[in-house]
Design goal:
The chain has ten helices and 23 strands. The protein has four domains: 20-240, no CATH class; 242-416, no CATH class; 422-453; 474-566, no CATH class. With 566 residues, it is α/β, with parallel strands linked by helices. The longest helix is centred in the C-terminal third of the chain and has 26 residues, at 422-447. The protein has helices at residues 2-17, 179-187, 227-237, 274-285, 313-331, 352-355, 414-417, 422-447, 451-459, 462-471, and strands at residues 21-24, 47-49, 57-59, 63-65, 67-69, 76-78, 84-86, 101-103, 110-111, 118-121, 146-149, 157-158, 164-167, 169-172, 175-177, 206-209, 261-268, 293-299, 302-308, 339-346, 405-406, 521-523, 550-552. The chain starts with a helix and ends in a 14-residue tail after the last strand.
């Protein structure tokens, strides 16, 4: 029997040590200074006004005022053994500036998802433990947390809309509730004074009270990092984020603000123990460290370590030590930590923290690049190499050496760091493909003997003909009357662009010197070239005016040839 008593005591201690309480902070009490527009509690002969839209107000201490104006529809509760007195004069030496009109201004509901409305405590009546660092999503009640609304206070709470909230237990005004009983209380006439009412077009938030503490050795996740809840948490808290004192800060999963430091995520396997792991990290890496905050969170099937300090320098160095140790353990079979994957991201622009990791025997011989910190690369050796190695765990646990090194800024590839962007690479590839297609078409036309007909088809295209008339034949001479390279110059046609020798069939020789152009030529075929001057009144206008034997001299003045372009 003695053994059973000791065993029961041991179980109680373990459960109490692992239990978290989240206590609600705001209230609508009469004695809270922030609830009044004068930022002080009414006293002396003050005239006190409580507006019509005010929630329930409780008087939990003796008070003296001059006058009290109550709302038409509201609730003013006198606490047990508390007295409210009225006086036309102020005899209280502690009441400063009495005789004023003081109005209650805590008439709006406080949001459940606002981290500023909660504090972490280790007992129902214990003080807030503000020295314990938490992620923003963990500062409001999590799945395994016990929620406390202390008795002797009045509240006005907004659960928000369209959310599914889950907690372990609910203690409201000294009474413990289940999911159904708390829903009944919220919709009762008395309970509605404590909660914001919903409009007809709003979707109610459901609060699930599971009343089942976490018994998983790997810990239980908070669950508030999921989008529907986390988005509303950050809407409330993000405006309060401080500007980080480091370049390229990082942001842990479940946190609304950027931080200076590092985030390590490790995928755990069966047999992992959360408390053992946390103790190992504290004893081996943080025992002699000061100024570094550590937050260890479960995110789905991974454990996230968040280390931060004002500049991120020291926490980044310690994170690299932890990361190397986890990576080494994975390569050896993961007997120490029982992790199968690990990844890290570090704030700051000091890329040597990543690139100087010692290479593994299984890694490729490629050297690490400083630009690797801005990429998401999983490797089997050091961060910065591009070698990927994955070994699956079958009978004996072997290592899945996955490593990701990245910073919080937008990821860019190592190619982009050398001046060539991904878009540029895509354009080059598409251009090469287009060129290959064009070459294939030309080869097909050539083999089928249709290349010449295709060229003729292109040449006879109306667009090509129009361009030729505009830029080549500016004098609008009929195309059939223009000289060409296949002209049989039996008549001694003198063209300034070609040679003077007669009987040239098939091709004409170009002259490189104007002095080689002959002087006179006899135009036996009566062809009048528009490039030469003649005594004709109108070229080709009247065929009878064309002399059958016309002698003409070539003109060499460029000014006279400016209207004719060859």
């Amino acid at each position: 029997m003695k053994f059973q008593s000791n065993l029961m005591l041991l179980i109680f201690i373990v459960e109490t040590a692992s239990c978290f309480y989240k206590r609600w902070l705001p209230n609508t009490n009469f004695g809270t200074p922030l609830n009044w527009n004068a930022a002080r509690v009414p006293c002396g002969n003050d005239q006190v006004i409580i507006p019509d839209d005010s929630p329930t107000i409780i008087l939990n201490s003796n008070s003296t005022i001059g006058q009290l104006v109550l709302p038409l529809n509201g609730m003013f509760v006198l606490g047990k053994n508390n007295i409210l007195s009225f006086s036309s004069s102020s005899n209280d030496p502690n009441c400063v500036n009495s005789g004023q009109t003081v109005e209650f201004n805590a008439t709006y509901a406080r949001e459940w998802v606002d981290p500023a409305n909660w504090c972490l405590v280790d007992s129902i009546d214990g003080p807030c433990k503000n020295d314990i660092p938490l992620l923003d999503s963990e500062r409001i009640p999590c799945i395994s947390d016990d929620v406390i609304f202390p008795a002797g206070n009045s509240y006005f709470i907004d659960f928000g809309t369209n959310m599914e909230l889950t907690i372990n237990s609910m203690r409201f005004l000294g009474k413990t509730y289940s999911t159904n009983s708390f829903e009944t209380f919220m919709t009762s006439e008395y309970g509605r004074k404590y909660f914001r009412s919903y409009r007809s077009d709003e979707s109610r938030t459901r609060l699930n009270i599971k009343r089942r503490p976490c018994r998983d050795p790997a810990s239980c996740e908070c669950g508030n990092y999921k989008p529907a809840i986390f988005r509303k948490i950050c809407e409330m808290h993000s405006p309060l984020c401080k500007r980080p004192q480091c370049k390229q800060p990082v942001r842990p999963t479940g946190h609304c603000c950027n931080i200076c430091g590092a985030v390590i995520k490790s995928k755990f396997e069966s047999g992992f123990n959360y408390e053992t792991f946390v103790n190992q990290i504290k004893q081996e890496f943080l025992k002699n460290e000061t100024g570094i905050e550590l937050v260890v969170s479960r995110i789905d099937t991974s454990i996230q370590l968040t280390l931060m300090d004002p500049t991120g320098d020291r926490s980044g160095d310690v994170a690299m030590q932890i990361f190397r140790d986890i990576q080494t353990d994975i390569k050896r079979g993961s007997q120490k930590y029982i992790f199968s994957e690990v990844e890290i991201k570090i704030s700051g622009d000091d890329k040597s923290k990543i690139s100087t990791l010692p290479p593994s025997s299984s890694s490729s011989s490629s050297s690490s690049s400083p630009s690797s910190t801005s990429t998401n690369t999983k490797t089997s050796a050091s961060v910065g190499t591009s070698t990927t190695s994955t070994s699956k765990m079958i009978t004996k646990p072997t290592a899945k050496d996955h490593l990701t090194a990245f910073n919080s800024s937008s990821s860019t590839s190592s190619t982009a760091a050398h001046g060539l962007t991904k878009i540029g690479i895509i354009e080059i590839i598409l251009g090469g493909l287009a060129l290959q297609v064009l070459l294939i078409i030309v080869v097909i036309l050539y083999r089928r003997g249709k290349l010449a007909s295709f060229a003729d088809h292109v040449r006879m295209n109306p667009i090509i003909i129009n361009l030729q008339k505009r830029f080549v034949n500016q004098d609008s001479v009929p195309m059939e009357d223009l000289p060409n390279a296949n002209f049989d110059n039996d008549g001694g046609f003198q063209n300034p662009m070609y040679g003077t020798s007669t009987h040239q069939s098939g091709k004409l020789d170009y002259l490189t010197n104007d002095s080689e152009i002959g002087g006179e030529a006899s135009n036996e075929r009566a062809f009048d070239n528009p490039l030469f001057a003649s005594n004709q009144e109108s070229l080709f206008e009247d065929a009878s005016k064309i002399s059958p034997a016309l002698t003409m001299n070539p003109v060499y003045d460029p000014n006279e040839l400016q209207d004719s372009t060859i």
